[in-house]
Amino acid sequence: MRHVMSPLDFSTEELDQLLDLANDIEKDPEKYAHACEGKRLATLFYEPSTRTRLSFEAAMMALGGKVLGFSSADSSSASKGESVADTIRTVSCFAHIAAIRHPKEGAPLVASMASKIPVINAGDGGHQHPTQTLTDLLTIRSLKGRLNNLTIGLCGDLKFGRTVHSLIEALVRYENVKFILISPEELRVPSYIRDDVLRANHKDFQEVIRLEDALPQLDLLYMTRVQRERFFNEEDYVRMKDFYILDKAKMDLAPDHMLVLHPLPRVNEISVEVDSDPRAAYFKQVQYGMYVRMALILTLLEVKVC
């Protein structure tokens, strides 16, 4: 039995196999339509989610399986004080696989240690979001044709953004990937990402404040929102929330081949006028998210489709 807590739980060879499977699902979804008949996915979401939760549920249903679970801590026995470990022990009696999102870092790991079924980390606080990273990798590889030889700008909340942390950790394993980290001083990447991930892997990176300075150099721009739920006071959030807004004028500074990704939801960091730009790939990214979660469910349940 295998769990997924981090994108680093897969080797690059295993990642290639997973992404190949996701691409095959995209090409021939009918081939996989009954692969998980009789299987149940539990979605244990202790904090709000639209894309991740619905993507997991859509993925399981597209495989012919069923879904059970809860969409907030208030609608579960966590509101009565039940521990994550006891919840997963109970859910293990009903489901074959579980996806858990929790505001506390490490909660999915605690669940995996008590579980009798595979557990997928669907986001834990500001720590990791491995299935978003798998989505990002599939999107980049499908639209760019490669995961190496790229200059990637990561913009916005780089301090609390778990999607950013996970993506950096995954991409440092590929050759000639350069990072431009675009953020205000208050929202720079944590020192452990800078020192233990980027510098430790001898990766080329710059830290800049102005988005306009970075855009002409980029193959990919990964925008993130300033996350209100991670701030301790409203005043700091209000001061930071509109620091970056990607609009048509800024897009004019970017190369024609640059793609714009965003884990969503967006607030106002990408103007709606950018949506019609052919370089805007964030809604394609959502679709790729379902395919990669289908591939992940099949892999963890060890279901083979001929």
TrEMBL record:
Output the superkingdom of the source species: Bacteria
Give residue ranges for domain Aspartate/ornithine carbamoyltransferase Asp/Orn-binding: 149-299
Q: Does the record carry Transferase as a key word?
A: yes
* Pathway, per record: Pyrimidine metabolism; UMP biosynthesis via de novo pathway; (S)-dihydroorotate from bicarbonate: step 2/3
Q: Where is the Aspartate/ornithine carbamoyltransferase carbamoyl-P binding domain?
A: 2-141
The UniProt record gives the binding positions of L-aspartate as K80, R162, R225
Group of enzyme by EC: transferase
* Gene Ontology terms, MF aspect: amino acid binding; aspartate carbamoyltransferase activity
As recorded in Swiss-Prot or TrEMBL, the protein's gene is named pyrB
In its UniProt record, which GO terms are filed under biological process?
'de novo' pyrimidine nucleobase biosynthetic process; 'de novo' UMP biosynthetic process; amino acid metabolic process
Q: Which Gene3D superfamilies match?
A: Aspartate/ornithine carbamoyltransferase (3.40.50.1370)
The catalytic activity of this protein is classed by the Enzyme Commission as 2.1.3.2
The answer on whether this UniProt entry bears the keyword Transferase reads yes
Q: Which reaction does it catalyse?
A: carbamoyl phosphate + L-aspartate = N-carbamoyl-L-aspartate + phosphate + H(+)
What's this protein's family per the entry?
Belongs to the aspartate/ornithine carbamoyltransferase superfamily. ATCase family.
Protein name listed in UniProt: Aspartate carbamoyltransferase
List UniProt keywords, sorted A-Z.
Pyrimidine biosynthesis, Transferase
Q: Which residues form the signal peptide?
A: none
Function text: Catalyzes the condensation of carbamoyl phosphate and aspartate to form carbamoyl aspartate and inorganic phosphate, the committed step in the de novo pyrimidine nucleotide biosynthesis pathway.
Can you name the source organism? Candidatus Egerieimonas intestinavium
